[in-house]
Design a protein that fits this description.
4 copies of one chain form a homotetramer. The first copy, chain A, has 7 helices and 16 strands. By secondary structure, chain A is of the alpha+beta class. In chain A, strands 5-3-13-12-11-10 form a 6-stranded mixed beta sheet, sandwiched between helices. A 5-stranded mixed beta sheet of chain A has the order 1-2-6-7-4. A two-stranded antiparallel ribbon of chain A has the order 8-9. Chain A is globular, with a radius of gyration of 20 Å. The first copy, chain A, starts with about 30 loop residues before the first strand and ends with a helix. Chains A and B meet through strand 3, strand 4, helix 1 and helix 2 of A and strand 3, strand 4, helix 1 and helix 2 of B.
């Protein structure tokens, strides 16, 4: 049975988690998965085996009319989050964020457009058109990617069944066919509660991270600094071809009132969390981070009203000097979310005898325990 | 009858054009359009009227196996060229460039993936997956954009019928439903021959630009510095609602041997050409420039061969000090391509009585002639 | 006698100017110059001739304790504004902006540090250290740059004598030894009043630009679209060696309440104004734009109080949808400020017989008049 | 007695070091320090105590005439490397790199200009002017920074006494007054040998890193993943005020033939090495990385020859697909260089009783040993 890192008795960092230790701990945020697992045996393009899916992250109920402030950072751009250019320019998110496999980005973007135009009448007439945000990882080692099994209904379902509360992790949704550090991984999540200020000025904010994790090689895997990848049996991963490729998409949510430029800075720090797991951001690995704050909603203006709107708005902003706690939180969350994506994923067999083994928790626990004991001894 | 700017007897700048004054003057570059014009009358979503299409720009015959060096610049990111993140990171272009309407980006990207996986077997198995480059402008004022009339076959056709030689301009392909400075526009192109060095070290290179032009308001339109927009009858454009939105995608090709970082610098200068036509890069206008050089091909490496390939390559590079001629050329080309997109587009009626008038060439020619006469008089 | 463009009877664009048509029309902004002109004859390094200086732009009285929000854009980075990295990261300006010649940047930065530490006790102890903003253009064609004639007192004087009201232009301060489009130029300024909204929501803001202008070649000079550079006698500039080099630093001030990310977007549009004068941003030309908004002051936090400060602040922000008027204004202002830098500069002789002729206003006026007449005729 | 990490019996990563485990292992690279330590007792501005200096990194003997290709990355821009804008634009380094304290950047830049104009006649006449690269960290907790004790001679000496071979580390040169994770630090260095390819195509390159390290708090310090900072006695650092500020400048040298865009990507990975030591890139911490490759020299063009030079050049370039080894190397080097800066620095007393304790090696060694033992046990 798979267990999250904390269920195994370990954790990353010092800050307390939110209730579910998930991105959904940020009030309003919902996550939905459509998981596609079908067929076995050799690869027959168009037939399978299928190991892929769609994951939707919804910042709040009506992201179209009440946009949220957003920012992003590209650690290594060998990947795609379509729609990112507009997020970078306007600092706004106005659609759900969708994740899928690389060759399905177009189809998922198309489905998102269909879903948006049906649910928000007036796009393209009363309102400007929209550009959905769709990120990807390459699952072609375990999935018949070229067979293109993601359909529009899968996208609708991921959006419509999105819920708050606990988030399924591992081989679900857009994480179904992914591999991290040569082990089966997929979706992972984690959250932190950050208390800023003191005395009368105390405020507590939540920051949550969801990763679609698909990068790295076993040798470099570290968990909380422990060189786990060096200690596991290399034979476990002998089946996997050597690939430079890979990717990780990191979605960051917070209810701290941040500007777009502050979210960019926050997203940059997620890269440090990826690095702590052992990544050196390989040439072929697309490491892209997208963040949003739910604190200030930016109402959409109809094209008709463009001459009547109020010219200015007053917004609450967290001071940059107060952001360090969030920076610590995002490094911790990103690392723990990646580890959760590994801890929660079972072994999976794909086409052509490709096997992605599960991270062996029975081997992992004693390694982490021994390291903790050594640390505890030193502490005394 | 519509005529290009030079057919009217005018031109932009000093440098000589290539044979066709088109992006196809860069050897190997081909352009194809699929134009969709159907129906009339009021807007019925899903039925029409349809005024849209697809334009394909192919850097050379086998862009997949022999990638070209690429770069880009975003003047205002209120738009989308999906796939741009990877171009920015790797400095490589490995798919055709496709242009369409905003809400069709996903569908066109999906079709491009299908086309690529059929024509280049091994994607996702022997080779890494690919991320197509798909740019867009919003044609929803003249087109039933929400009705989503672009289909995969339209994409295939634009790619497969792409040819060298003269390029159709105005209301064709991805330019079918576009409006620039309140006049009907669409696709435009222009090229320049640039001679670098002197004496024994003379070299001549070609630079070509193709624009998908959809920005601005009549009042600010300038042609070769002449404030044409102020001199035309404002009544012409009374039918058009005031919109901040718009966009222009600029595709730049050259056979000068440029690195990715040099192409980024080159693309930045295209922005100055957009500015000369009167753009102030409105908040809602997505101004994105993508450029490539056909001089150095970068062979694709199969995943199997990843351990055997040669580690270094020797490439010819134009010195930065020699690039000024190309900078002048791109400013001239971008301006002239935009003007050509206006000069070559006929009046078009869209849904709901929306009418985009043609730029009135019979009014334009005397204005430009009078300005030239004033200049010529001053010259004496 | 030199005259500004409007004194000659011409102007750029449509928007009304502020009282002085100067950056000082933005309330609180002050400008000071120290002009160094000494000696004649051949270049003797360390002796002269001296044709250089320092210009100071002060956003308001106490920029150290009440920082202003700032942003920047680099069109071509072949130049330097030291301190720009921190402006880009924090979006704050906390020192005066100083301009000088390239080889004096270090000395001026050093003098600014001395001035700041004397006037604001506690830097480095109670407060963090500061990094002054110092921009430059290369005046080595007219000035004994290597002789290094700028001293700390010159910096102090420029700061301390800074005043509001009319701004001296042409061969003053950091503009003393500069050349634009082969004519003597230097400092220029211009401003616009921008009215946003309508009915009850009307607001008027001021935007001002000051340029240190030192770029381009005569052939490409345009004024309000008229190809003036082609119409003047090339013999005028025969004395000048061909140089790719040059630069322009653009300082932008506004009282519109903009965030840092909005100021970055605003600064980008200044590049379009540079382009309208004829620039193609030559390889060796450093085109850097720095902007600030005086609307929201950001108080400096002492290091002691770092645990007690309020965690959030409420700020007023102009909506992005309302920024188009400012975008038009900055394009107009940048162009007019550059032209003013030319119109207001007298001929100057530097070392080794180097002569930078003044833009011949008696030739210019009829050219512009003829172009205007042609336009007016077309208008009828 | 202080010892480098490897002298203590530990190391970071898997790759072999160069001969001296220093940036000077890259052939041609030299390092020089001028260390200023004078006075004791309370802070008297202008008198002392003085704990500062200058460090010079010279890419090769004649960086002016034969420039090297360079790139940079800013993890957090709360700091300054003046001259960086031009490096980013041109991808060239044409002066020595100098490091010092924040308030001395101007003075050091000025001295560098004096040194360059004396040693390379023709600057500003036969050749373009130059903009020196000067980075900084804030040493005001241990140094009378406001007293401004760095003089031009100190800069000349650092440049002229620069040598290859072993590099002094800890409290030397620009590292004299620095503190990392609440312990005395300063300059640190490390190098790696990277073997790329296999069989007949094997090549070995050297990559070296030098850091000026001044960031972080004890609690977050990690060495090779071991949470050392949690295990040391917090009382050790009780004397130090809590500061967000800090900084780290990372200089990267390699003889691998990299383009500027590749060096930018390489520099980005150094950020991951900073993160592994425990940094979350605090708001007030300036983390800036500058890298250069010595493989391709770019000759300087005189202004007279601007019309005669060869238009193109042929350069050898490492394929991006081959860069992963360098990415691993830079993460390892950056981490080890930071640790060396701590291991090699003795306790230092500054003004006002400020004491920066040395990292206690006698406590550190058993902690690292215990962690290694735990790992070794797990390995079996």
């Amino acid at each position: 049975m798979r267990q999250r890192l904390r269920e195994l008795g370990f954790s990353i960092g010092h800050l307390p988690t939110g209730r579910y230790n998930a991105i959904t701990d940020v009030p309003g945020v919902r996550v939905g998965h459509t998981t596609l697992i079908e067929g076995d045996g050799p690869l027959v393009v168009g037939e399978g085996p299928v190991r892929t899916g769609v994951t939707a992250v919804l910042p709040h109920d009506d992201i179209f009319h009440n946009r949220v402030i957003a920012g992003s950072f590209v650690l290594n751009g060998a990947g795609e989050v379509s729609g990112l250019t507009q997020v970078a320019e306007w600092g706004l998110l106005e659609t759900p964020i969708l994740l899928t496999n690389t060759l399905a980005v177009g189809k998922v973007s198309d489905a998102a457009v269909k879903w948006m135009t049906r649910h928000f009448p007036g796009i393209g007439t009363d309102y400007d058109v929209i550009i959905p945000l769709v990120g990807e990882c390459d699952d072609s080692w375990l999935n018949d990617t070229v067979g293109r099994h993601v359909r529009s209904e899968h996208v609708y379902r991921a959006i419509e069944q999105a819920s708050d509360g606990p988030v399924r992790e591992g081989s679900v949704g857009a994480g179904t066919g992914l591999v991290t550090c040569d082990f089966k991984s997929g979706i992972g999540t984690s959250s932190r509660r950050v208390t800023l200020g003191q005395n009368d000025a105390v405020r507590t904010h939540t920051l949550g991270v969801l990763v679609q994790s698909n990068f790295g090689v076993m040798r470099s895997l570290r968990i909380d600094g422990v060189p786990v990848g060096e200690l596991l049996d290399p034979a476990m991963t002998a089946n996997r071809r050597l690939k430079n490729a890979g990717s990780i998409i990191v979605i960051v949510a917070t209810d701290a009132p941040l500007l777009s430029s502050q979210l960019v800075r926050l997203c940059k720090r997620a890269a440090l969390g990826i690095g702590r797991v052992g990544s050196f951001a390989a040439h072929g690995s697309g490491e892209i981070i997208v963040g949003f704050s739910t604190a200030n909603k930016v109402p959409r203006l109809g094209t008709q009203s463009s001459r009547d709107f109020t010219m200015t708005t007053s917004i609450e902003v967290l001071l940059d000097e107060a952001c360090d706690g969030l920076y610590e939180a995002i490094v911790e969350c990103t690392e723990e979310a990646i580890i959760n994506s590994l801890c929660m994923a079972d072994q999976m067999t794909g086409p052509a005898g490709h096997v992605a083994p599960a991270l062996p928790l029975d081997r992992l626990a004693p390694i982490l325990r021994r390291a903790r004991d050594a640390t505890d001894t030193a502490r005394i």
